[in-house]
Amino acid sequence: MSEPLAIVVNGVSGRMGRMLVEVINASDKARVCGALERPGHAWVGKDLGEMLGGTATSVIVGEDPAQVLKGAQAVIDFTAPAATVALARTAAQMGVAHIIGTTGFTPAHLAELQEIAQAGVIVRAGNMSLGVNLLTALTRKVAEALDSDYDIEIIEGHHRHKVDAPSGTALMLGEAAAEGRGVSLEDHAVRARDGITGAREKGSIGFAVVRGGDIIGEHDVMFAADGERLILRHIASDRAVFARGALKAALWAQGREAGEYDMMAVLGL
């Protein structure tokens, strides 16, 4: 049997970081070889196992990516856009595959990642679950089949702590709908409505956002016409689906040529 894949988890103290450690440790195909936190974080210099409420391990939480990534084959990153872009440069320089679940990127961030991917392997997705990526493929197909008499609305819900809106998944679904229609999402998206907005513009792609409680992730894509509505829906009830998808991406990324990939490529969709 081949050696387990050596993976570093960035943002290890967060909800997704903890879940990633749990999922990786439960796998016989990978192991956590390192853990990263932002400089000055209370976990830096501490044993990861103890910080997670268990027994001591040989993994000490670090703050210097160049040190922590030594010997790693992949790093999984669900953190913040600026931190992710900075880490991407180090990972590419060190030949470490960078699996990115971070959302909220600006166009400038995305341009930087595209440039970095010329020298390293990046797998980036607004959502890494199998179900959501199937939903994305279905959204593209349905948008292609139905004309602009069907209004498209994307409704997403997340927990009260999420800081970006619409979610990366909602934007991914919006891009799929726009591609199916053969239009630019940037030119057709309506991200907010307030006050006297006037009638809906034909062909627009609307977004609605819910934030509250502990909602892990809920996404609907509605195609609404006179007399009927078609609704495609995905509900995540456990963050482990995202962690399992990220692990699958890390395994898939090994041996790939430099470039930026998505989960559709990982899943063969």
Automatic annotation (TrEMBL):
Stored InterPro entries: DapB_C, DapB_N, DapB_N_CS, DHDPR_bac, NAD(P)-bd_dom_sf
Domain of life: Bacteria
Binding residues annotated for NAD(+), in chain numbering: G11, V12, S13, G14, R15, M16, E37, G101, T102, T103, A125, G126, N127, M128
MF terms (GO), sorted A to Z: 4-hydroxy-tetrahydrodipicolinate reductase; NAD binding; NADP binding; oxidoreductase activity, acting on CH or CH2 groups, NAD or NADP as acceptor
Record flagged with keyword Oxidoreductase: yes
Keywords for the protein's UniProt record, in alphabetical order: Amino-acid biosynthesis, Cytoplasm, Diaminopimelate biosynthesis, Lysine biosynthesis, NAD, NADP, Oxidoreductase
Location of the Dihydrodipicolinate reductase C-terminal domain: 131-267
Pathway(s) where this gene product acts: Amino-acid biosynthesis; L-lysine biosynthesis via DAP pathway; (S)-tetrahydrodipicolinate from L-aspartate: step 4/4
Gene3D superfamilies: Dihydrodipicolinate Reductase, domain 2, NAD(P)-binding Rossmann-like Domain
Family to which this protein belongs: Belongs to the DapB family.
Chain's role: Catalyzes the conversion of 4-hydroxy-tetrahydrodipicolinate (HTPA) to tetrahydrodipicolinate.
Name by which UniProt lists this protein: 4-hydroxy-tetrahydrodipicolinate reductase
UniProt organism field: Pararhodobacter oceanensis
Gene: dapB
